Structures
1.
Amino acid sequence: MDTPLVADTAGSVRDMILVLGILVVAVVFLVTEWIPMEVVALLVLASLALTGLVTPEEALSGFSNPAVITIWAVFILSGGLSRTGVASRLGRRVQQVAGSHEARMIAVIMVCAALISSCMNNLAVVALMLPVVMDLARRTRTPPSRLLLPLAFGAFLGGMTTLIGTPPNLLASEALTNQHLPGFHLFDFTPVGVIVALAGIAFMALVGRHLLPTRDVTREASASGQLDLREQYNLHERAIYMRVPPGSPLAGKTLAETHIGLALGLNVLGIRRDGEQLLLPGQADRLAARDLLLVQGRLERMNQLAGWRELVRLEGEDAVARLTSPTSVVAEITVQPTSNLIGKSVGECKFFDTFHANVLAIRTEMGPLRPHDTQTPLDAGTRLLVHGASARVEALQSSSEFGGYQVVEAQRLREEFDLGKHLIVAQPRSVSLLVNKALGDGGLKDVLGLRVIGVIPSDDSWAPAEPDKSLEEGNRLLILGQATSFDLITALESLLVEQAVEPNLEILESEHLGLMEAVLSPRSQLAGKRVKDLRFRDRYGLSLLAVWRGGRSVRSNLRDHVLREGDALLLYGPRGKLRQLGRDPDFLVLTEAVQEAPRSNKAWLAIGVMLLSLVPVIAGVVPISIATVAGAALMVLTRCLTMEEAYRTIAWKGIFLIAGLLPLGLALDSTGAAKLVAEQVIEWVGPFGPGAILAAVIAVTLLATCLIPTAALVVLMAPIVFNLASELALSPQTLMMAVAIAASATFHSPVAHPANLLVMGPGGYRFVDYLKTGGVLSLFVGAVLYLILPRFWVLSL
């Protein structure tokens, strides 16, 4: 008779271990961001269903959850208020009442952000007010680092004051409803939230501002009251004039043909010719002798070409024959479907460093042969022509990355692969700086598709071009690349640096051309992409001059720069193109003058729709999920925003994250895992009374915001809180409100909330700034919450 009980117990323990294992793995992936957070949530959902921890219906229930529906509907309502200029009008009042005293400015900014955030999404509020606060910083000559963190913090504090202010509040209410307990009404958070918000604002204005960094002292206004972006990004430090001398091979070539950007990492801002200025020249513009080029970048790349200047190309050498020798071999291999190289280019996977062989050419199933191509992403079935020491190349046969190994003879290399056009044999000059130097120290860096792949001693043998290989007198080099690139390096060496001429960067701005600062929007698809892959000039008609990250300006070698969330970009080009960029959803322009004009004529209509959505909720007539969905539909029907704009306002990553993780909360509860954790908390903290339990809940939630997204945190904390409340006769509403408000206190990490990342670039913040300023504010808010919450909500039942 006892057997079923034993089996049930064993199954229960197994289920608890399983769900806790899924939780731990999910947290690891959420913290490391090895894969996107929304994908983690979907994998959790699938794992719970496949292991039988939840039913298929329960696994998918998150997508129909009223809280999830309310959250995306509130995003659309917020978008309507933003697009019609309602919120920006309130934001502009900041400049009228803030004055120039820092404490007053911080207080006004935070109060304004908090007021708007009580009925708008936090992220939308920060995005909306960012240009307003930047203009205030410029006008008052205040470093943005003193104002932008208070802006983000003010939005977080305001979100604590109403049910729709932030997703954690909605999720806490829905968790109560799912337990058949009374949920929160629209203004249930207001008494506690307003006191916490006002206390936090007062703390930042009086105490916390002394912890804010004073950074980017170059970000000061000019005498006219406008920010000099040239000074802000220190453009003068890397701006130089270079002259095309008479007789230079560059004369008559287009900028595209010179490859100045690719080879030297220089950005040509202007050309002075016969006393006239051509600003922002295009790739089709041709150079002429005696042209004076205004360029931006580092001259170190010029020095890196010095090694190539020491080489003399040997005509008549059979370069293909040099590929094969008793110690070297050429083979063709195929990328396997299970290869870890798929999606990476030859350059990105550092093929030579990993496999000690050079890729001479690649050929995809759909495309033509591409000699010395290091940029095309590899795919299953891609054929690679590799060359190197025989032992190294033959070892690729046993690698799980490749298959289809086949040795290629010299005749086939000439006829099928036509490699004779892509190989060069060169020799250092008789008196050369390269002799008796290692290849890695000789300045023979890969440039313009040229790469040294072998060394040919005087006895005509062959040796791989290892970085530590020393060149001896009489050695020749086997180079993969085209002769035209080799000749172009000599041409680039002819450019003369005009040290005596001081660059005048004021000429960059005119009636038709200007500078603009922008940040990647929170929902931009450009984060993680390299600048050269975006082709700014072709795509936007603008030139990217610099990127501001981590408190410093990056101006050189921007082509290989990978954009990140929080980066601030300095763009240069026609003012019409700058205004056009202000309408691009991938960017948030920091200058209001070039932003897309709001639909001001529909401002009162948007306010009416918002009120029409909330009044029935306040009266208790319509559930908030239905009321907000109806309001979202009305925002589109009244043309306060288009359907396309409505889709863009929704943070889909957050929606999928919440919907995917909600079943994990169910599984934690149903398997008894949440009860197990609650019992452990009771054992540790319970003897100290209900106040200690409340303090523990607040402290754990505050700490967990460093690791877990706020919405996911509420989902995971809910079953634990309900078990604590049940075991100790505590009010679940009080504990869930504590969790929701503490989860919104995401002050102490730039990755805790996208709004923190949004101000990181413009403010020049570093991680330690959030930890120092936000960490202290989090402790203060937690203490205020602990003292105030029991005054309004009963803790012990």
2.
Amino acid sequence: MRISLRFLSVVATLALCVALSRGEHSASMDPIVTTLQPNAEGARLLGRVPVAFVPNVGQWGHHASYVAKFGAMTVFLQDQGWTFTLVERRRGEPDARVGPKAFPMREPNPAPGRGVAVRMSFVGAKTPELIAEQRLPGRHNYFLGNDPSKWRSDVPLYGSVCYRQLYAGVDVRVREQGGHLEYDLMLEPKAQLEPVEVAVEGIERMHLDKEGALVMDTRLGPVRMPAPTTWEEGPSGERSSVPCRYVIRGANRFGFEVTGRRSGWALTVDPGLVYSTFLGGAGDDSAHALALDAQGAATVAGNTLSSDFPTTLGAFDTSYNGGTYGDVFVTRLSPTGSSLVYSTFLGGTGYDYALTMALDSQGVATVAGYTESTNFPTTAGAFDRSFNGGLYGGVYVGDAFVTRFSPTGSSLVYSTFLGGAGDDRATALALDAQGAATVAGITTSPNFPTTPGAFDTSLGGYGDAFVTQLSPTGSILVYSTYLGGTGTFGDYAFALALDAQGAATVAGFTGSTDFPTTPGAFDTSFHGGYGYLDAFVTRLSPTGSSLLYSTFLGGTGDDRAYAVTLDAQGAATVAGWTESTDFPTTPAAFNTSLNGGRDAFVTRLSPTGSSLLYSTFLGGVGDEFATALALDAQGAATVAGLTFSANFPTTPGAFDRSYNGGYNDAFVTRLSPTGSSLVYSTYLGGFFGSRPFALALDAQGAATVAGDTVSTDFPTTPGAFDAVHNGRSDAFVTHLDMLPAGVFVFGRSSPGCTGSLTISVTSMPHIGNAKFALTCGNARPFTLGVCALTAQRYSSPIPVLGGVELWVDPTLLYMPQMAVSNGLGASEVSLPVPSNPALTGGRLFAQFFWVGPTAPPPCPPFGWSASNALELVVQP
């Protein structure tokens, strides 16, 4: 059995940093810590240690066996427990404004303040053996003072330390997870949990909050340990959630209680991270684009300044070309994030940057972006093999590029420049069913290539957006048009999506009062005022010759759209950020008031662009910027971005509900299909900045996010490709299951008419949750079905109804719940959880079954289809 516990500092207006990072401590600090202080030089060296456990082989004059420095604490591992120290530091102020093309991060410039130390020890424990685990790359040398006998060299680094047999049959593993100190209680099948008790010294008081977290109040503020959420693992590898809670046993002691533990089953925590990995080398690396193939494998693209960026044998280009300017990288990870399928450089000797990417049905990657390299690689027969940029208006400018790789990343199918004499950047890309790439971006070129009959063949003001469709071979332009007005602040396209007919919907922002709009559109008037921009959403005809609709979107402040996606009915959902208090929202939306200086927004337009289906703010008291967006099978929008708010809205049972940032965190949030509530919302990050730029959902609705981070403590997972931060800034790729605590997906869907049928939930199944419901997506619109609720699951499916896989036991069936799909093929079945604590730990298994038409394909020949399945465990 395993129980995992995490520490989170929640000190308002203060950033907690390590007392030893400057070799200082408070005279009023708990005396136990004064015996643990290394000398000043040792403290300085400790401050350079990465997030790792370093054995004390005599380089420090105290009795701790291992020392680890986290972004928010230093931990000293001793027999039967550990001590952690904190000191307050005041943060530096963030930048006053954030520009349209960058989200700058400034590391804090703190000043030291008061310190505090907390000692945690296991009551009645044995003297255990401490075993270092997970050897990390690198070694440290300590040459302290002028006595060589006290010098230590080749000191190894470890990812975790295990206390073996702390109690009979109980091990404790101490490790880092997501920048926080975390420890796992691991119990053998017959070991007892009741004797495990922790005594705490150095705190003012201890209590449980309404979410079941253990809060230890210190003179600097509270340190919070979120409620442990756990699963059992059976002999055959099947998993099942089990509730676990803290039990306070005195003024400064606590223990643990697990409900419904089964004999012979191991227990582990559900962290919500399927995998999370760094990606990079010794230089700066940033991922700006992401797509998933049918197996869920992530392909990411971005920019690297690392000559040692990881590449693979046989890839198109394994040598760094960029010098001080940087190269594009394109990397495909395995579905588990544990290895590289292929990884290649792409670029010339100038500045090269990938900003967007898409995969076709075979998983072939097409990448687009910006290059200043005259020798950027192009292919024979491509539309344009000559660099068009150079000096323009006294400034060196570049071209857009579009490049398609072979399925293995070993060669180029085509690669072309795209641009004119000015500055040209491809920022968004989508593929149609034939593999033709439609690209949107920004141009200041009066001679940007356009096609006869296109909507607009003349450059407007300072710069225009452009929309260009290439042939599947990249050899000709199917259509190419400018899009913009005559404003001096320009028009910027940052997002693009294609409908089933190949019509491009483009989103971005504009400073042009005469940006083209259409009669009957939601908003045909510019609101931004001088120096402020409005978002826009524009749908072109499939041939690029006319506008189907075009609308402004914004208020009297700055409003900028960075992401757009379409549902099955053609309704566009847009995300970005706004500083307008009068940004248009809808009455039943999740949040109708601006919360800080800038908020993210998520807005869904009607299919004709004439009205808002919903529109909501999303944020806290700081600034928020939404950068990426995707829709699941239920039509629910998942949005990613960055937040500077310690009170950004999160949901119970999410991966991380506490703000980590000394400067900012990433966030990942799923709204309900109507935009009226949050289904799931979490922070994602470490102590310093993390910026997500790309997001994709798999068939089950799990989210993969990519971006960059300067946080060495950004959360990674065991077995991930790279768990060690490599340079000042690394790319990251993180896969979240987007399921709250107490919810586990298993099995697989049988095929339906519109794709895999996916089952999910609206919230965490906790005691008293009257709004809890099950959801299913990708059913045939307006179809009858049933949600089967049973007391038992199958570890292997039972085939029924001519090919449907049954994952739940019908012999233990509760009353079935009828389901009806809506026009999007989504359904919601209410399953309120009573306010009865005795239900804690109760299990339920669920699967949807749908009556549908028979063949022709893709409809099943037997007329029935079924979703995958869920296990639900009632949480306290």
